[in-house]
């Protein structure tokens, strides 16, 4: 899953639906920077949190 998270992809945090839709900014060694609609820029360890790709948009 880590390898498919590329800049520009839209994702959701499985435990924080209130953050809304997020756009991946970078993915460096499993540290994924995501800019969420309602939480701003967040760095997530994708080895600990399985971000969910959003294909509905």
Task: Tell me what you see in this structure.
The protein is mainly beta and 57 residues long. It has one domain (2-53). The protein contains no helices and 5 strands. A 5-stranded antiparallel β-sheet has the order 4-3-2-1-5, with no helix packed on it. The radius of gyration is 10 Å and the shape is globular.
Write the layout of secondary structure elements.
Elements lengths: L9 E3 L9 E7 L2 E6 L3 E6 L6 E2 L4
Antiparallel strand pairs: 1-2, 1-5, 2-3, 3-4
Summarize the structure.
This protein has 57 residues and is mainly β. It is 0% helix and 42% strand.
Average pLDDT, rounded to a whole number, is 93
**Strand portion, in percent?**
35-45%
Number of domains: 1
Biggest β-sheet description: 5 strands, antiparallel
The helix-and-strand class reads: mainly beta
Order of helices and strands: EEEEE
Distance separating the two termini: 20 Å
The order of strands across the largest sheet is 4-3-2-1-5
Provide a count of the helices.
Answer: 0
Uncertain stretches: none
Shape: globular
Number of strands: 5
Helix content: under 10%
């Amino acid at each position: 899953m880590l390898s498919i998270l590329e800049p520009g992809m839209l994702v959701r945090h499985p435990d924080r639906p209130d953050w809304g839709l997020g756009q991946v900014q970078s993915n460096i060694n499993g540290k994924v920077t995501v800019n969420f609609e309602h939480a701003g820029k967040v760095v997530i360890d994708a080895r600990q949190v399985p971000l969910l790709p959003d294909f509905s948009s």
